[in-house]
Amino acid sequence: MAATESATSVQRKMAAGRDDSHTAGRTVLRALRLGLARAARDALNLPVSVIGITQARMTQAALVGHVDGDRLLMLLDPVNIFRDPE
User: Fold this and answer.
1) Are 29 and 40 in contact (CB under 8 A)?
2) Helical (H) or strand (E) element with 66
3) C-alpha closest to that of 9 among 76, 17, 53, 50
4) How many domains does the chain have?
5) Is there a domain that residue 10 lies in?
6) pLDDT, tens digit, 9 for 90 and up, residues 5-37
7) Which residues, 6+ apart, have CB-to-CB distance to 21 below 8 Å?
8) Domain span holding position 6
9) For residue 15, is it within any domain?
10) I want to staple 62 with a disulfide (CB 3.0 to 4.6 A). Which of 18, 26, 58, 85 is the partner?
11) Residue 63 included in any domain
């Protein structure tokens, strides 16, 4: 039993380290796309259709060179962690 538990824990750790953007990422991106459209409709009475969305992991330093000036960059911060403490 210990060998089986150890094998499954190793498998979970390996799966967590992988970039699963081709499997679980699709559903997250779809939910974000649909959620943005729904929020714009409900809160602002604004019809919004998100036609393209991507997800990437990178450091903050790499982000500066990655985002073009004509792109929309969003920071989702539901608990105001990144808010200025003025």
Assistant:
1) no
2) helix 60-66
3) 17
4) 1
5) yes
6) 666 777 777 766 665 545 555 688 888 889 889
7) 55
8) 2-55
9) yes
10) 58
11) no
